[in-house]
Design brief:
- The complex is a heterodimer of chains A (about 290) and B (about 280).
- With about 290 residues, chain A is an alpha/beta fold.
- Chain A has two domains: about 25-55, no CATH class; about 60-280, Alpha-Beta Complex (2-enoyl-CoA Hydratase, Chain A, domain 1), CATH 3.90.226.10.
- Chain A contains nine helices and 13 strands.
- In chain A, strands 3, 7, 8, 9, 10, 11, 12 and 13 form an eight-stranded mixed beta sheet that branches. In chain A, strands 1-2 form a two-stranded antiparallel ribbon.
- Chain A is globular.
- Chain B has about 280 residues and is of the alpha/beta class.
- Chain B has a single domain (about 5-260), classed as 2-enoyl-CoA Hydratase, Chain A, domain 1 (Alpha-Beta Complex), CATH 3.90.226.10.
- Chain B has twelve helices and nine strands.
- Chain B has helices spanning about 5-15, 20-30, 70-75, 85-100, 115-120, 125-135, 150-155, 175-185, 190-195, 200-205, 225-245, 250-260, and strands at about 30-35, 50-55, 60-65, 105-110, 140-150, 165, 170-175, 215, 265-270.
- In chain B, strands 1, 2, 3, 4, 5, 6, 7 and 8 form an eight-stranded mixed beta sheet that branches.
- In chain B, helix 2 (about 20-30) packs across helix 11 (about 225-245), helix 4 (about 85-100) runs parallel beside helix 6 and helix 8 (about 175-185) packs across helix 9 (about 190-195).
- Classes of the chains: A alpha/beta (about 290), B alpha/beta (about 280).
- Chains A and B meet through helix 2, strand 4, strand 5, helix 4 and helix 5 of A and helix 5, helix 6, helix 7, helix 8 and helix 12 of B.
- Strand 4 of chain A pairs antiparallel with strand 9 of chain B, so a sheet runs across the interface.
């Protein structure tokens, strides 16, 4: 009977979010790793990397500073989620959860995508917003990556995905799961024109993201200390009934086990990406920068 | 079709110890069959059965999850939860099918991919992702049938197919109900609630246009007449393979692309999203 009285939450309109960035109330930021306090401006100047080397998580907007200045243009910014299962449980209401996350982040869902350039190289880019339901991969997330890959194909440019995600969006059920094949299909097509996909794994990358586009990229770069895995640590510990070693599923562990290509500190990322992309798009300095038409 | 079973009932039926498993399908449907072993890289994983056989005179590749019927067999088969080597064995058979132009039949019956330290160390996520990528481009027809439970990426790793069929009382979910409840509410005992809320039955998935066909089961479930269920499923599988065999490869691949490309629930808004906050300066 309770459902009869359940009102759909008020529709979200961009601009009504409450997060106020002009007057940060936390002038000093505590590092979750070493516990030291750093003045917030100093921390931003250091790309939110603590003196101890801990890489703090960035928002999707903060990541946009990775690109050449003023080069980022958002695309597909008007795609928003639905509640396909009418997900309501005694503890959880997806429509309300969406609205809360939309108010908190100003985004419709956990993804910002568009085109940009790095050291002059034009790219399609996707950036996850972890603060939006753990960066979970639902229909909007999948659709934006698919469109970015299709645009990269049409424009004959590389694709960069910047990833932080806990896995599939449980509240969208099998529709969320089906985003895995959807994005991989578009990436397979991008591969046919010889344009690379670089996946940047930041903390954390789990579940559906790891089991689809992020781990079949042509080049996989991880940030130091990023946690990367298919099954979550808690799930594995419960299954095997013992504690896992501290470095298990870290970027460094994944590098050692052959699952990623390199671990790159944040302040080297821009030049690393710029140089890497150049190797594929300018293969012969005397020849045309792009492969011949197929 | 009206059924008195709840979603949670169906989860129980889909896991029934006498429910027909992949090797039962092989026994009933195949005129001849050889099981192939190993991923040629590390090991053979008994949680996945893969091989080449003949059904109605047509040579086919068959790949399926395999659960056990008793504790000893379940230990050997890891309760139908494949490790990376299992998925890489499947990958080998996908390539095999393409090389010899054989259609592929995938039988799905897993609670999910094996969650363990060894599987993580050998790249469980990567093994699943690679299979999804390979099935997406496979130049031969591929049909899947969910015969029991289809759990998460562990099911999808052999489930990206031109046609997705489900038995009437099978289930397919983004994570097994116990795992879903643990992730959503940190309480795996709420699995019956998760089963209901997350719309995991064949009927739900047909309504959402995710699957193509539901294959009816005998009263009470497939275990009550396994051979009849399998033969009925076999007829539908082979009808689909015949239809797909008639398509030129380019059409087959285009249709597969479109099938998955349209999946998802989204809407288009009049205005763009607008996050506040400032980019950092990497320059």
């Amino acid at each position: 009977m309770k459902e009869l009285f359940r009102r759909a939450p008020k529709a979200f309109t961009p601009g009504e979010q409450t997060r106020d960035q002009d007057t940060p109330d936390n002038m000093w930021v505590k590092c979750p790793s070493c516990g030291d306090l750093t003045y917030h401006k100093q921390l931003r100047d250091n790309l939110k990397v603590c003196k101890c080397g801990h890489h703090m998580r960035l928002s999707a907007v903060e990541w946009q500073g990775l690109f050449d200045s003023e080069s980022f243009t958002e695309e597909d910014g008007n795609i928003a989620p639905l509640d396909p299962l009418n997900f309501v449980s005694p503890k959880d209401n997806y429509a309300q959860k969406l609205r809360d996350s939309q108010l908190q982040t100003g985004l419709y869902d956990a993804m910002i995508s568009g085109n940009a350039s790095i050291m002059g190289q034009a790219l399609q880019v996707t950036i996850t917003e972890f603060d939006f339901i753990g960066g979970s991969m639902g229909s909007v997330f999948g659709e934006k990556i698919a469109r970015a890959a299709e645009r990269a194909y049409d424009r004959r440019v590389p694709l960069l995905t910047i990833n932080a995600s806990g896995g599939a969006r449980m509240h969208e059920g099998v529709l969320a799961l089906m985003q895995l094949p959807k994005v991989n299909l578009t990436l397979a097509r991008l591969g046919t024109i010889g344009m690379p996909h670089i996946s940047l794994m930041t903390d954390p990358c789990y579940g559906g993201v790891l089991a689809s586009y992020a781990s079949v990229a042509d080049i996989i770069i991880a940030e130091p200390g990023a946690r990367i895995g298919f099954a979550g640590r808690r799930v594995i510990e419960q299954t095997i009934r013992q504690k896992l070693p501290a470095n298990f599923q870290s970027a460094e562990f994944m590098l050692e086990h052959g699952m990623i290509d390199m671990v790159v500190p944040r302040n080297d990322l821009r030049s690393t990406l710029g140089r890497l992309f150049k190797l594929y798009t300018m293969r012969d300095a005397d020849a045309s920068p792009l492969p011949a038409d197929v | 079709m009206k059924t008195p079973f709840s979603a949670w009932d169906k989860v129980q039926i889909s896991r029934h110890v006498q429910r027909p498993r992949t090797l039962d399908y092989v026994r009933v449907l195949c005129e001849d069959f050889f099981e192939f072993h190993g991923d040629r890289r590390f090991a053979d994983d008994a949680a996945i059965v893969a091989g080449v056989g003949r059904i109605e005179g047509q040579s086919v590749v068959i790949i399926g999850h395999q659960k056990g019927r008793d504790t000893r067999e379940n230990m050997r088969r890891n309760f139908g939860m494949p490790k990376p080597e299992g998925y890489r064995k499947a990958m080998r058979l996908f390539h095999h099918a393409e090389k010899f132009a054989l259609p592929v039949i995938c039988l799905i019956d897993t609670p999910g991919a094996d969650p363990s330290m060894e599987s993580e160390s050998r790249g469980q996520g990567n093994a699943i992702a690679e299979n999804i990528l390979i099935m997406a481009q496979l130049r031969t027809p591929i049909v899947s049938l969910v015969i029991g439970e289809g759990g998460s990426g562990g099911a999808l790793a052999i489930g990206v197919t031109d046609r997705i069929l489900m038995l009437e009382h099978s289930v397919y979910s983004v994570a097994a109900p116990e795992a879903s409840a643990a992730i959503l509410w940190r309480d795996s005992s709420k699995a019956p609630d998760a089963a209901k809320t997350m719309r995991i039955t064949a009927q739900d998935l047909k309504d959402m246009n995710i699957i193509d066909t539901i294959i009816p089961e005998p009263e009470g479930g497939a275990h009550n007449d396994a051979d009849a269920t399998i033969r009925r499923a076999g007829v539908t599988i082979m009808q689909n393979i015949d239809a797909l065999n008639a398509l030129p490869t380019s059409v087959l691949l285009d249709q597969r692309y479109q099938k998955y490309r349209v999946m998802g629930a989204i809407k288009t808004m009049p205005t763009n999203q607008s996050s506040n906050g400032e980019p950092l300066s990497f320059l």
